[in-house]
Amino acid sequence: MVIKFAVCKISLILFLSLIVCHCGYITGVDDSLTISRKVYTGNDLRVDGYYYRYLGEGTNRQISIYFLFRNGILLWAGPFADSTIATVEEQFRSGFYYNAVKEDKASWGVFEVDGSNIIYEKWGISIVKAKPA
């Protein structure tokens, strides 16, 4: 009886935590980004490809990819297993990835350049599971 009550209590706490944490989703109100979108007019960054960042090490190493557009928009992709980069790049080239995430707000953000630093901000993380047809 005590175990059953504890399980119910934990379940209730988890449920209430989810409601509190996701109240923005329930009300339909998104957090605002603190960085304003600005057109990138410099020449120090290339905007005809992507930038990447490794996460983890060894066999667990993954890669996050960032596309920076001249209009100040950032498209985030990942994380992907480092060993799948060739497949992921083909999805970028074919437009498949863009079509899969174009309506996914969590894949998009804004960036600005401050000296030699790229500062970016994007909405929360979501997982996009899509496979080519």
Please give a structural write-up.
With 133 residues, the protein is an alpha+beta fold. The protein has helices at 2-21, 23-27, 85-94, 96-101, and strands at residues 51-55, 62-68, 73-81, 108-114, 117-122. The protein folds into 2 domains: 1-30; 32-133, no CATH class. It starts with a helix and ends in an 11-residue tail after the last strand. Residues 4-27 and 126-133 have low confidence and may be disordered.
Write out key terms for the chains shown.
alpha+beta, 133 residues, 5-stranded antiparallel beta sheet, globular, 4 helices, disordered C terminus, 2 domains, single chain
What's the structural blueprint in terms of helices and strands?
Elements: H1 2-21, H2 23-27, E1 51-55, E2 62-68, E3 73-81, H3 85-94, H4 96-101, E4 108-114, E5 117-122
